[in-house]
Specification:
globular, alpha/beta, 181 residues, four-stranded mixed β-sheet, 7 helices
C-alpha cells in the first residue's frame, strides 16, 4: 500500500522531467548594456540576430557595453575575462566573440575565442571595426553593432563551407570599387 501512495507523487515529477526533455533547446544571446545606449526594442533585435548566428553556427557572441574602465586596463584582456566569467565561447564548439564597447572612451574592441581567432585575421577584424565605426560616427549605434553581426555571419558562412575568410568577403563595397580606392 505504501508503494501506491509514493507512485502518484513520483509520477507528476517523472512526467515533468519527461516534458522538459521534449522542450526545444533555447539559445541565449547576450547583450550586456550597462551603459544604457540601446533601448529594449534595439536590444531585442540584436539578441535575435545573435541567437540566429548561435543556432546556425554554434558560435556564441556577447556585446558588453559599459562606461570607461580606465586607460590602465587592457581592453582585450578585460573582454577575454568577461567572456570567461560569462561562459561566452565555452559551449560545445568552444568558439565565441565578445564585442566590448565603451562609448565615452570611443573604444570598441572585438575578441575572438577558439579557432575563430585564426580564421578572423587581424585584417578581417580591422575591416569589421571599420564598418562599425563608420556607423558609430553617424550616431547609428544599433546599425554599428548589426554591421559586426553581419560581417561575423558572412565570415562564419565561409568557414562553414570550408573556405578561408577574405577581407572582400565581409565588405559592402564591390571588389572593383575597393581596388580603385
Amino acid at each position: 500500500m505504501k508503494k501506491l501512495h509514493k507512485l502518484p507523487g513520483f509520477l507528476p515529477v517523472l512526467l515533468c522531467l519527461a516534458g522538459i526533455m521534449w522542450l526545444p533547446v533555447s539559445v541565449q544571446a547576450k547583450v550586456y548594456d550597462n551603459y544604457g545606449i540601446l533601448n529594449e526594442e534595439e536590444t531585442t533585435a540584436l539578441e535575435k540576430e545573435l541567437a540566429e548566428i548561435e543556432e546556425a553556427y554554434q558560435f556564441e557572441t556577447a556585446f558588453l557595453i559599459t562606461d570607461n574602465v580606465g586607460e590602465e586596463m587592457d581592453y582585450r584582456q578585460y573582454a577575454a575575462r568577461f567572456m570567461q566569467m560569462n561562459q561566452v565561447g565555452y559551449g560545445e564548439s568552444n568558439e565565441g566573440l565578445c564585442v566590448f564597447h565603451q562609448p565615452d572612451a570611443r573604444n570598441i574592441t572585438i575578441v575572438f575565442r577558439g579557432k575563430a581567432q585564426d580564421q578572423f585575421t587581424e585584417k578581417i577584424q580591422d575591416r569589421m571595426l571599420d564598418h562599425c565605426t563608420e556607423k558609430l560616427k553617424k550616431d547609428d549605434t544599433l546599425g554599428a553593432y548589426q554591421s559586426i553581426v553581419k560581417d561575423l555571419e558572412q565570415g562564419l558562412s565561409r568557414v562553414s563551407q570550408g573556405k578561408k575568410i577574405r577581407p572582400m568577403d565581409i565588405s559592402d563595397t564591390p571588389l572593383t570599387l575597393s581596388l580603385l580606392k
